[in-house]
UniProtKB/TrEMBL annotation:
Protein name according to UniProt: BRX domain-containing protein
Residue ranges the record marks as coiled coil: none
Keyword Acetylation recorded: no
Gene Ontology cellular-component annotations: nucleus
Chain segments carrying region Disordered: 1-24
Lineage, top ranks: Eukaryota, Viridiplantae, Streptophyta, Embryophyta, Tracheophyta
Location of the BRX domain: 32-87
Length: 103
């Protein structure tokens, strides 16, 4: 996938979790990390920390939808909303990195 995620207001984000099927046919999660499209062209890699909080591993923006400055501005305007929506761990909020711009 190219770019980072962002979902339009009211839309449910798409989630891709790593899973496999065991001998009984039941799916199980192999990792507590997943990629989610927050909105068109904005993708987030999240990790469940097991205590009700999550870690935001990476934010990527599609070059097809965002120029470099557009992505930076989007992140500045929407960072707190993202942290609230996904219950991002408090210590990470203080030390958030700039988003990644990808092909």
């Amino acid at each position: 996938m190219d770019g980072t995620m962002h979902a339009p207001s009211g839309a449910e984000p798409r989630v891709a979790a790593h899973s496999s099927v065991n001998g009984n046919g039941a799916a199980r999660r192999l990792h507590d990390e997943w990629l989610e499209e927050y909105e068109a062209g904005v993708f987030m890699k999240l990790k469940d920390l097991g205590d009700g909080t999550r870690e935001l591993k990476r934010v990527r923006f599609s070059k097809r939808r965002f120029g470099e400055h557009q992505a930076e501005n989007w992140w500045k305007e929407n960072r707190e909303k993202v942290y609230e929506r996904y219950n991002i761990r408090t210590s990470q909020r203080a030390s958030s990195a700039a988003p990644t711009h990808s092909a």
